[in-house]
Amino acid sequence: MPYKPSAPSPRLDQLPAWRTLLTHRDAIASQHMRDWFSGTGAHARVEQFSLRAAGLYLDYSKNRITETTRTLLAQLARECGLPAKRDAMWAGDAVNVTENRAALHVALRAPQGMTFHDAAGDVSHGVHDTLTRMRAFSERVRDGRWVGATGKRIRHLINVGIGGSDLGPRMVCDALAVYGRRDLSAHFIANIDPTELARTLPSLDPESTLVVVCSKTFTTLETMTNARTIRAWFISHGIPEGELGKHFVAVSTNAEEAMRFGIRRENVFEFGEWVGGRYSLWSSIGLIIMLYLGARHFDALLAGAHAMDEHFRSAPLESNMPVLLGLLGIWYRNFFDAQTLSIAPYTDALQKLPPYLQQLDMESNGKSVQIDGTPVAWQTAPILWGEPGTNGQHAYFQMLHQGTTLVPVDFIAVLNPQYDAPAYLDHHRKLLANCFAQSEALLKGGSMATAEQVAGPLGAQRRFDGNRPSNTLVIDQLSPERLGALIALYEHKVFVQAAIWNINPFDQWGVELGKTLSRAIEPELADPDLLTPDAHDASTTSLIRLAGNALKAKP
Ligand code: F6P
User: What does this chain do (predicted)?
Assistant: First the structure.
């Protein structure tokens, strides 16, 4: 069942597997997972509900599922045409129906020799040509052949971008900082709020700073405003305007606009329109990753993602990691009314993974209309949130264990620490002990009451019911390759869910209205007299007046 926006979609909640899943849910809802782990079947359950792919290990045995659940969920995926939809994405069909574009991010990490096409033809040559240019440029910067206006080699990198032009590169550079070049620092400026700028620029030497202006459209308000402020910073520090080309490169699909900004044609790294912002870190949007980590590690990141792509494309649905992760999400979101999904990476190196996944999941699947234009009658994207463990344990895990809301959790554990000094081994053991203990507690529940307290009110307040689901993803080490596989896993999981919900995960019209309205408000803030009584609702009008008058007082 490929994407055909004009054809009416069969109602998801009328499909046979959906209806059978409802009955099945009612049959097992009162059962406790604890019981499925008792007796001789316990080990078999772990065998049955775990798998390896692309170097990742997923234990999904601590879920409220039985063999029947898995079979029915896979059946639902078939009834929704998941394999055909996946193949359509691979084939370069215009699966992004509202923008009539392919979504071929898998082409970005495919090895040379593997070809992908969209409606306009082969895209793979362009991908590899750009990678070759990125490698050559990165080498020049890294080995000191590329110098700034005053002949100094580059020591500081700034990525100016927002959303997909920021979150992915920022997350990867942070997660893999241990692989980063010691004599290079990587900085990220995203927000229109100048705090990041004000905190970053004073510590940098403009003569040895290279700015990557990253924007698919090269018109994004935040990015262009920040880029202009940084350009003025260079000039105010004595870099002549004519020499700014040594300090600015651009990544965009809009080379003309980048050149209008003053970036030389040869310093614009392009990518295809078929690369969605939140799926773009593998393209030239990842230039700062290559500059900071080097081409070898960037290639390993791509290779890890490609390994996951191959697994997703070829493994049977019942043993396909992104499919299973996606279906488990459907199970809780649609059959247990779980509103949210918590991501708990047990390493600070992945602290930027939750915000990255927020855009990936919520911008992709935060939709309420199907691809045929009719409203959905089922829940879509969960609210995704999280923090690295063990920090989260001391903040919100209380609610995960004893709150009234069911919150499925994805734990991510790394077996070998990135910093493996003997002194840190003890830390790492404690870290993993906590990670595994949390999922055990969520599963089993228990009591912190003394024998005297058990029967009374204190006992009730000290009791954990358990039966709270989680996945545990285990990675041997947080290397570029494994990180690539992990990101691709979540990308495909989001795609699986979109296929089931019958929505387009590749557009983001929901962010446009606010952007348009802000363009009208900006001049009114500068001059509140421009405000007409019926330009906005009364609340917005009074907020504009309040802020406009406060800003007026500024010199
Ligand atoms: O505002 C949403 C968005 O369009 C994202 O989808 C995108 O990643 C981001 O803005 C940045 O867009 P651009 O790369 O064109 O600057």
Answer: Catalyzes the reversible isomerization of glucose-6-phosphate to fructose-6-phosphate.
What H or E segment, with its residue span, contains residue 291? Answer: helix 287-293
Say yes or no: 59 and 20 in one domain: yes
The Å distance, Cα 188 to ligand 1 centre, comes to: 15
Residue 343 near residue 384 (C-beta atoms within 8 A): yes
Shared domain for 338 and 415, answered yes or no, is: yes
Residue 372 has pLDDT above 80, yes or no: yes
- Count of CB atoms within 10 A of residue 318's CB? 16
| Residues involved in catalysis | 363, 394, 515
**Quick one: how far is CA 231 from the chain centroid?**
30
Residues 222 and 371 grouped into a single domain? no
> Residue 200: CA atoms inside 13 Å, Cβ hemisphere, count?
24
Same domain, residue pair 207 and 129 = yes
Structure confidence at residue 42 (pLDDT): 78
Rounded to the nearest angstrom, the distance between the alpha carbon of 214 and the centre of ligand 1 is: 10
Measuring CA to CA, which residue among 201, 221, 229, 210 is closest to residue 267?
Answer: 210
Tokens 């869910």, residue located: 497
Q: Is the pLDDT of residue 203 over 80?
A: yes
CA of 491 to the centre of ligand 1 (A): 17
Supply the pTM of this predicted model.
0.96
DSSP summary character for residue 179: G
Parent domain of 534: 510-553
Q: What does the pLDDT average to over 427-437?
A: 97
Q: Which atom of ligand 1 is nearest to the CA of 277?
A: 8
> Nearest 10 degrees: CA dihedral of 212, 218, 220, 226?
40
CATH code of the domain covering residue 481: 3.40.50.10490
Domain count along the chain: 3
From 216, 254, 491, 506, mutation site for ligand 1 pocket: most ligand atoms within 8 A of C-beta: 216
- Among 508, 513, 519, say which to mutate for ligand 1: greatest number of ligand atoms within 8 Å of CB: 508
Q: Can you give the pLDDT at residue 5?
A: 52
pLDDT in tens, 308-363: 999 999 999 999 999 999 999 999 999 999 999 999 999 999 999 999 999 999 99
Residue ranges of alpha helices (H) inside 315-421 are 321-335, 353-358, 364-365, 397-402
232 with 118, same domain: the answer is: yes
Is 130 inside a domain boundary?
yes
Pocket, ligand 1, Cβ cutoff 6 A:
162-165, 215-217, 220, 223, 277-278, 363, 508, 511
Contact predicate 253/268, CB 8 Å: no
